[in-house]
Specification:
247 residues; alpha/beta; Cobalt-precorrin-4 Transmethylase, domain 1; Methyltransferase, Cobalt-precorrin-4 Transmethylase, Domain 2; 2 domains; five-stranded mixed β-sheet; 8 helices; 4pyrrole_Mease_sub2 (chains A, B); Tetrapyrrole methylase domain-containing protein (chains A, B); methyltransferase (chains A, B); methyltransferase activity (chains A, B); 4pyrrole_Mease_sub1 (chains A, B)
């Protein structure tokens, strides 16, 4: 039976793919994705029909993937990171459910920006955290703003996806203005650009000193909670062991 | 130079390890971990010194790992899931920073329970979400409670790690009592047990009908937001494409 695999390829380096993702790519005859991400995994896509498209054509890509499966082909629709975290899995399943299409479909998990940015920073998300996308493309700002307030108030570590784009320059600035009402200016901030790919940059700073110009559309921003601290090249959010154990 | 690798091995199936994790395990001469997780990856641990311990000895394991590196050995300290998400990375870095130890240390990202449970459920965390551990071992209940309230109020999808343990049976019951104040009883709930390993179970239910007896210490529980719905075997949180595009 033909299947649809909704695959997260991780940050983009070949060695942050899982074995399961590689296996499902191998089993597919058609690979569909945004061309920038297809390029990152092209070395392992031998003898495949590759359908590449531009960044904004998500709906076309998802519909094309479903159509190819209905035509009897096994298809991998790829996202960077984890397909189920701001990736293509949700859109594909939305379309399948809305049109009540009966195909075999599986989501294959991947290393999302939260996993990869956190690893490069040390251990910033070792305690409870929230993930918030600052893109207003699909979510209105008033909802995003409410989530930032609640997350800051409850002392969650906060991960910002899509902190900036060509058209949206002020999302991260406005978000930080909200956070400043709840958190000390010395709270650590980690900025990771192009995690595990060419141009990787890891910046450790704090709320007061962070430079918004260093943030772009390939950045993930992690704001520490009240316990987070910096040590050498690491951003560390303790989980609480030191209150309970001697070391 | 000897190095310490803080490695997330993913949910436990060999094919949800990343290539980078396998590479760093191969480079290590000593592997340290809780014996249940060591067992999951034993087939690839050839010619290694393996130091296994019981579940509660986290501090001992982290200190031993640091000591072995100081003795000149390259060590992998393994966690299930992602070492940086309620895993061993934070504790190891806490100890290193507190004792001001100067060793080469790297966190290697892995597929956490949030990635794997979400993939098995469909696309429940496609929009903003919070991760909350219900373990009161290291965090007092009043802080956890505050986080649940804020997360529920701001309509985050909520992922509960450690929903129950041998000693803590009521955490998830109390957590759901809080959530019921903010969310409709028909809100979808996904429960995933033993993701990608023997005994895997995927349960789709809702706040009203969920059976607390199905939840154990190997479970991850995901509570939908106000937009989440069930379709066939999938739990879907739309990201908002249907408001903007025709399909």
């Amino acid at each position: 039976m033909a299947s649809l695999y909704l695959i997260g390829i991780g940050p983009g380096s070949m060695d942050n793919l899982t074995g399961l993702a590689v296996k499902k790519l191998n089993e597919s005859s058609v690979i569909i994705g945004y061309k920038y991400y297809i390029n990152l995994i092209r070395p392992i896509l031998k003898n495949k029909e590759i359908i590449e498209s531009e960044i904004t054509n998500e709906v076309d890509r998802a519909e094309r993937a479903v159509l190819e499966v209905l035509n009897g082909k096994t298809v991998s629709l790829v996202s960077s990171g984890d397909s189920g975290i701001y990736g293509m899995a949700g859109l594909a399943l939305e379309i399948i459910s809305k049109k009540n299409i009966d195909i075999d479909v599986h989501v294959i998990p991947g290393i999302s920006a939260l996993n990869s940015a956190a690893a490069l920073l040390g251990s910033p998300i070792m305690n409870d955290f929230c993930s918030i996308s600052l893109s207003t493309n699909l979510t209105p700002w008033n909802i995003i703003e409410k989530r930032i307030m609640n997350a800051a108030e409850a002392d969650f570590v906060i991960i910002f996806y899509n902190p900036k784009s060509m058209r949206r320059q002020n999302g991260i600035v406005n978000a930080m203005e909200i956070i400043k009402r709840y958190r000390n200016e010395s709270t650590p901030v980690g900025i990771v650009k192009n995690a595990y790919r060419d141009g990787q940059e890891v910046i450790l700073t704090d709320i007061k000193s962070m430079d918004y110009n260093t943030i772009d559309m390939f950045s993930t921003v992690i704001i520490g909670n009240s316990q987070t601290y910096l040590y050498k090249d690491f951003m560390i959010t303790p989980r609480g062991y030191s209150k309970k154990y001697e070391y």
